[in-house]
Design brief:
2 copies of one chain form a homodimer. Chain A is α/β, with parallel strands linked by helices. Chain A has 2 domains: 2-270, Spore Coat Polysaccharide Biosynthesis Protein SpsA, Chain A; 275-354, no CATH class. Chain A contains 12 helices and 15 strands. In chain A, helix 6 (203-213) packs across helix 7 (215-224). Chain A is globular, with a radius of gyration of 21 Å. Chain A starts with a strand and ends with a helix. In chain A, 49% of the residues are buried. The model of chain A has no long low-confidence stretch (mean pLDDT 95). Chain A binds chain B through residues 16, 294, 296, 298-299, 307, 310-317, 320, 322, 324, 326-333, 335-337, 339-340, 342-343, 346-347, 350, 352-353, 356, and chain B through 16, 294, 296, 298-299, 307, 310-317, 320, 322, 324, 326-333, 335-337, 339-340, 342-343, 346-347, 350, 352-353, 356. Strand 15 (329-333) of chain A pairs parallel with strand 13 of chain B.
Amino acid sequence: MYVAILAGGSGTRLWPLSRSKRPKQLLSLVTDRTLIQDTVQRIEPLVSPDRVLVVTEESHADEIMRQLPAIPKPNFVIEPTRRGTAPALGLASLVIASRDPETVMASLHSDAVITNPDELIRALKLAEQVAAGSDNLVTLGVKPTYPSTGMGYIEMGEPLPGLADGAVHRAVRFVEKPGPEVAQRYFESGVFYWNSGIFVWRVSVILELFRQLMPEVHRLLMGIKPYIGTPEEARVVAELYPRMQKETIDYGIMEKAPRVAIVPTELNWSDVGSWKELMEVCPPNQGTNLVRGTHLGLDTERTLVFATQKPVVTIGLRDMIIVDTGDALLVSTRERAQDVKKVVEQMEEDEELRKLL
Amino acid sequence: MYVAILAGGSGTRLWPLSRSKRPKQLLSLVTDRTLIQDTVQRIEPLVSPDRVLVVTEESHADEIMRQLPAIPKPNFVIEPTRRGTAPALGLASLVIASRDPETVMASLHSDAVITNPDELIRALKLAEQVAAGSDNLVTLGVKPTYPSTGMGYIEMGEPLPGLADGAVHRAVRFVEKPGPEVAQRYFESGVFYWNSGIFVWRVSVILELFRQLMPEVHRLLMGIKPYIGTPEEARVVAELYPRMQKETIDYGIMEKAPRVAIVPTELNWSDVGSWKELMEVCPPNQGTNLVRGTHLGLDTERTLVFATQKPVVTIGLRDMIIVDTGDALLVSTRERAQDVKKVVEQMEEDEELRKLL
C-alpha cells in the first residue's frame, strides 16, 4: 500500500499559533512532534517511508521536507496552485500509478489528531483488503461522540458480504454539516458516521472514476502522465495543474461514485478546527486542564493554556482558552473559540495587526 | 510647607507587573508617568521640589532618584532597614526640622492613585492652615464610595471652630478594617471616612508627640539629630535607625494623639492594593474595558488588559484581568484578583517561578 498525505492546507483557525505561513500541520499541538510528523509516524507500522507521498504547495514544501527527513525527495508532490483535494489526489494517484498501477493507496490529511493509532491501523488494513479485492472506494467513518454540527456525515448501509460481519458496510450517502436537530437524529441513529476524509482505493479505480466523473481533470492528468519522473514533470504540472477544476474529492468523486464502502471505526479523531476541538480530542494533562508550558493555576478548571515561552498564572478560571505565542496573546472562552475566525477577519483590516496573521 | 513622600514600600500585589525589585510606586499604571512621578506632580502647585523629601530604602533609591530628577539629592532620605512608617516619618520630620523647625509638613504615600488632584490641593491647603494654627495632627479622610472591608476608617466628630462650617472636624477615632456588616454601617453613617494615610502636621508637634508616645524612637532620633546634613549622617542613621521599634504612624502616634483633626474629602483615591482596585479608580478607556497596549476585543466587557509588549485578542470575556509582562502572564477573574497574593506565596516555593517575584 501507498499513502498520500494531503499537506496543502493553510489557515488561521488556531490563531495565534497557526499563521498563514505556519499552518496547523506544521505545529506541535499534542505531542512534541508536529501534526504532520505524527501523521507519518502513525502509519509507520503499515508502510515504509518510500511509499509515503506528501502533496503540498510550494510555500510550505521546504519546511515540510525538513520535518520529514525519512521521506525521499521525489515523494513530495508540489501543487503549483491550490485546486482542492480532487486535483491533489488525482495527481498523487497518477504519481503512485506510475510506480505501481494496481496498488492500493490511502489518503490522509496531514493536520488531523488521532489519539488511538492502533484503531487507525486496524481500519486501514481492513480498507486495504476491501479496496484490493473490489472496485470500491473505501472511507473510514468515525463513530460520533456527540451530535456535531461541524462535521460531514456518511450514512452506513448493508454490511459487505465476505468479511467479518459488520466490519465493512456499503456507504449509502455523504451528507454536509447538518443543523442541530438533524445532527441529533444522526447521532441517535447509530448508522451515521463522521466523514474523516480518510479514503482508501486502488489507483486504477480512482483514475477510472476521474475519467467518468471529472473528465476534464482526467484529461489534464493524462497530459501530465508521460512526464512523471522526468525533468519536464515540474514544468508540465505548472502548466496543466492550474487549469484543473477546483473541487473537493468528496463532492467531485466520493458522493457520485457507484461503489463506496465504509469501515466504521471508533477513532478518537479530530480535524482540530478550533482550540475548542483540540480540547475535545486531547485528554487533560494537569487536573482538568490541558497545558503546554509552565502553568500555575489557582482554582482553574477545564482550561487550555498554550504558552511555551513563559509561565502563566491563572486564578478562578472555568472553560477558558489562553494561547500565548510571544508576539500575540489570545484569551477566549472555550465556547467562543471558533470566533477566532471573526477576529482574524478584523485583523486583516488593520495594517499593524495584519502582520500577525 | 514641606512634603515627605513615603516610597519604601515593596510588594507583589500587582504581580506580574510589580516585583520585589520593581514595586508599585515605580510603575506606570494609570498615566505614562510612574505612580511616584504622578505623586510628585500632583503637589507641584503646592510646594517646590526643594521642599519635597523622599523616604526610601537603599535598594530602590537609585531608580527613584532617576525618576525624580527635579528633587535635590540631599532630599532623599534612605532607611537602612524598613522599620515601618513611624520611624520613617520621625526621621523625615527630623530632617525637615533641621531646615525649618516650625514648618508644616505633609506626608504622602508614593504609590496611591488620585484622579482628582484639585481636591487634594484644596484639602492639603486647608490641612496646612489647621496644622499651622493649632497643635492638631491633621488627616485627610476619603468619603467612602462603597462599604469597603479592605480599608481603615476614621470617625469624624464635631466641626473645628473658626473654619468654614464642616470643612474640618475633630477625628474621634481610627478603626481597623471592619467586617462586612460594620463596613455597611460605617458606609451609611456618613461620619466614617477612609483613612488615606495622608497626614499634615507641624514638625515641632509631631516630634513632641514622638517624645511622649514613642520615647525610645524619639531618643534614637535625637541621637541622629546633631549629624543631619553632616558627612556622618549616613553612618549614624545606619547605626541608630535599625534599633527603632517597627511601627506604623497610625498605631504609634495617630491613634493615641490627643488632638487629631480630619479634613473630609471627596478624593477619588486608591492605594491600588490589587488589580481590581486599579479598575475601580481608573475610568475605562476602551468601551467598558481598561486597556494599556493594543487590544482587539470581541464581545469583551469590564476587562483589564495590561500588555504593552504585544497585541492581545479577547473573545467573550466579562470582568477579567489580563496582565502580560513579557516574562509572565496573569489571567484572573476580577473578583479573584486579590488572590495574586496566594499565587505569589506558591511561587516562592518553586525554584523556577521564584525568579519572577
